Amino acid sequence: MNPTPVYNHEHIAHRIAWLRAATLGANDGIISIASLLVGMASSGAAYPVILSAGVAGLVAGAASMAAGEWVSVKSQADAEEAELALEQRHIKNNPKQELLELQTLYEKRGLPEQLAHEVAVALTKHDALAAHAHDELGITPHSTAKPMQAALASAFTFTAGGVVPLLVLILANFQSIPIANTVWLLAASSVVTLFSTGALAAKVSNAPVMRAGFRVAIWGSVSMVLSAAVGAVLGVNIH
Questions:
Q1: Of the candidates 197, 206, 152, 199, which has an alpha carbon nearest to the alpha carbon of residue 12?
Q2: Is pTM beyond 0.85 here?
Q3: DSSP per-residue letters across the chain
Q4: Taking the chain (239 residues) in consecutive chunks of 10 residues, what is each chunk's mean pLDDT?
Q5: Which residue, 12, 4, 3, is CA-closest to 202?
Q6: Burial class of residue 4 (count of CB atoms within 10 Å of its CB; 0-12, 13-18, 19+)
Q7: Residue 232's closest CA among 183, 192, 186, 166?
């Protein structure tokens, strides 16, 4: 008798919401602060000015990310609550029609008519609203919007990501590295960090690692190049 095979059956549906917010926050933190520092350095600004701009950008960015995520996900949560309330009224006012609606959904998914009817009846008796939420509206406990979770994850990871280029700037100044060389050091370290965070997020999500890493690194590089060009142009015009 062969033993039951052991394999990894873990899914990530339960962590998609916060993983999305965390990944967005980390990548945005690295790209935003690195691009800001590169742009400021390319303009010819002095180290204290560049550092002050970076710290201000980090604080403002983290707060903005948290507020943006909270408002966005809270709007989603409000919409979900409104849909559930509407569905509850439908179930109360038109129980037979709602039962038939469930049955039709199960038939479209491949169940024979009689079995689809029995399943619809059983699930309606158990929890009619939960059945309609899951099978008609696509709202499940895993997908339910969590505004505060998204806001905190986004703010924390933005800060964690944005601190990296700031630390590189501080260490470069401590080692008396010229600003011109610091720009390249910031860019190179940020690209490596972006690739790492993209690859890590893909690993956690069971997605292709290399493709995700390169995708994030490339877009981060484009952002820093544009920031450096703007900084250089403005710096020339100012001086």
A1: 206
A2: no
A3: -PPPP-------GGGHHHHHHHHHHHHHHHHHHHHHHHHHHHTT--HHHHHHHHHHHHHHHHHHHHHHHHHHHHHHHHHHHHHHHHHHHHHHH-HHHHHHHHHHHHHHTT--HHHHHHHHHHHHHHHHHHHHIIIII---TTTS--HHHHHHHHHHHHHHHHHHHHHHHHHHHHTT--HHHHHHHHHHHHHHHHHHHHHHHHHHTTS-HHHHHHHHHHHHHHHHHHHHHHHHHHHHHH-
A4: 51 55 78 89 87 93 88 84 88 88 87 88 88 80 72 87 92 87 88 84 75 84 83 62
A5: 12
A6: exposed
A7: 183
Q: What's the pLDDT score for residue 7?
A: 47
Token output for 102: 């469930």
